[in-house]
Amino acid sequence: MGVDIFELPRESFDDFHPNRLRSYSNRGSRMKPCMTLSRSVMAARLFFLVAAMAGALAPGAAVSDPVTVLNIATINNPDMIELQKLAPRFERENPDIRLNWIVMDEGVLRQRVTTDITTSGGQFDLMTIGLYEVPIWAQKEWLVPMTDLPASYDEADLLQSVREGLSSGGRLYALPFYAESSMTYYRKDLFEQKKLAMPIRPTWDDIASFAAQLHDPANGVNGICLRGRPGWGENMALIGTMVNTYGGRWFDEQWQPQIDSPEWKQAVGLYVDLMRNQGPADAVSNGFNENLALFSAGKCAIWVDATVAAGILYRGKDSRVADKIAFAAAPVATTDKGAHWLWTWALGIPHSSKSKEAAKKFAIWATSKEYIRLVAGDSGWALVPPGTRMSTYASAEYRKVAPFSDFVLNAIRSADPDDATLKPVPYIGVQFASIPEFQSIGTFTGQAIARTLSGRGSVDSALQASQAITVRLMQQGRYIRY
What is this structure's pTM? Predict the structure, then answer.
């Protein structure tokens, strides 16, 4: 029901704000004076009303600035959780900007941001995206270029491979929050008990042998933990590098799919055997976060995954294995090409955002040297976002607490998306192929392998189904003829 303004209590002058008066004025004939009020009372109230309007509209009157709300789509991993924890500092320094976080697991995030940007939905002002999306989306002009960065940002400090991976036509299109390669973590105490020695660069056969000897479910220790959750950036990130080392590839030089090749069957066959025989129960549900929790709790003897976990395992408050772990290179097989992946989570601005300048301001803050120092002060140097800046690896404070720093830096710098397979390929990428169709191809293949891991079908049938789907998609995309 409407309220007649002549019947408002004397103390209710908050309701005389100009915005509210506009709504009242639209009521027209519905406004009527209260007949029980004297003419003098009505006159007095009209006086106060006009005075309030005059004061609100007078030149120089204090009017609160509008607040820009940034909708940020991000992933639920430890580094992004730390960013959300520290982000109120940015809001205090920028009271005209408020941050609204939409936090998702990796698979949902990829699906949501892809749908939003391809439809110009405008749901997000900042998206957490990576080396796969940025070059493709930049070429389609879906992303705002990150140009005119302040000198204090020091763009030249960014690692070259990371900067180039987030660029198109020589311009940055997203700012890197952290970057990673992959490595092997293992329990040195368990290896010593069994008198085992991990090579500096193990083979997948080495890993399989060690996992079999260390698997001890009676004492709560799995021989190995690997990603099982399906998705092109989940289980396929690992499996893609395994396929590389066995000499496999996604496509040959004529874009003909190679997913049912002997190399794929070797790699995926070993993966499924390892996970079924020495992996954790319900491994198909485990992605990076779940395996990080398992290894941190001492429930895995070996874990092959992202280098970004190193700081958490060595210095994280929840790590029970900080004094019991060691690391080695990601495993190899026939070749060492493509054995370790290259990835960065970065902040990109979709063209559909209506708050581009505010989004850019926050992206600069969140990926700056100053933010890294802020994390160091809050959680310690070992837990700063890794892999993006040379200044981090030159820091004496970081090197002192991060025995893995040189190893991780070398892994990131040596990962070569332009030369990641034994045989020639027409695509760029280590654990993915940089074409728009790959998101569907990789996700379907990951789901088919996950079904096999769950006991629903064979490796051969999973790869044959993936091959058939991929052929169809490549024909539809006119990479190959029908």
Answer: 0.85
